[in-house]
Design brief:
By secondary structure, the protein is an alpha/beta fold. Helix content is about 30%, strand content about 25%. The protein has two domains: about 120 residues, NAD(P)-binding Rossmann-like Domain (Rossmann fold); about 200 residues, Dihydrodipicolinate Reductase, domain 2 (2-Layer Sandwich), CATH 3.30.360.
Amino acid sequence: MGKESKMIRMGIVGGGFGGAFQWHLDPNCIVEAVCDAREDRVRRIGDVYKCDKTYRSLDELIKDPNVDAVAVFSGAPDHVPHAVAAMQAGKHVISAVPACINLEQAEELLECQKRTGMTYMMAETSYYHPCTISARKFFAEGKFGELFYSESEYHHGGMEFCLWRDEDGKATWRHGYPPMLYPTHCTSFLVGVTGERLTEVTCIGWGDGDPIMDGNPYNNKFWNETALFKTDQGHSFRVGIYWRGAFGGCERGQWYGSKMSLFEKDPNGIGPVIRRSEHLMGKDSAGFGIEEAVFEPYEAPDWKAELLPEPMRINVGHEGAEPFLTHEFIDALVHDRKPAIDVHEALAYTVPGIIAHESALQGGVQMKIPSFDR
């Protein structure tokens, strides 16, 4: 059987977000089995993928000899335990974000992937926003000049009303979850474009003392956290992750270059736009001379025709990212190559947030970020 006709047999864990992907549409993939502890969710995900082989526990699923790879879409605290169990059972893994929630888990994940040699990928949606794909292309072509500064924001107000409790009123893993322990929707906008590593951080947290936070398993008091990172290239990068406040929801990046800048659309109805430095002079409000970069509305291609098999060119949420993530993982397995967001990239996206939260707990002290590129 040639590589192009090789079939990957997937096991899907998690009947919530796990049902948002397109495994059944990839020409090189079969959904072999689905898994969730809740009967209603496992039935629902089985219906999505037209799969009637169901399991109620991960332990049962990873014993299935017909499963080649496992999609781990359980709660964040379980990502590493589930990914490690699957890799130790000889299964490749794609995991929901974040890759881990502490440094001990980061070490465990990296050690397991290196020891087993199984493929690991993290399913970060921001990596495949149309503007992010464009930014990677512009960066590779040198169009930005030097990217001296970037910003990213993940704003999701009302988390306590829509995600902190399940349908039965039971607290979920998200109750009081620290914003910077969910950093990858932001860090991917820089690390996933330039390959830079984040080496230092200072972070400030904000909370209002609302007793709804009381008793959360993370002992967290912050609704919002704002971090300023330094990269290994000496550049600066601001990240804002906010759960409460007067703002519109967004998951977006901005890239500031010496020749060109790119701004993803914001929740106030502006963008996406490009600014180009053309050395055109104008005047500021006080009458002083000021260089004004040219303003251009930018419509990013959707990239589907260029990057996806025809059956997967569908419109979905998260700026259309899920089919790209699905196909990237399957294609990496078919062609025996590293996926775009392998274990090193996943930790480079995730670990900086862990250190940023620690900085916030210490009042914004500057902290070094350990590297997992080994």
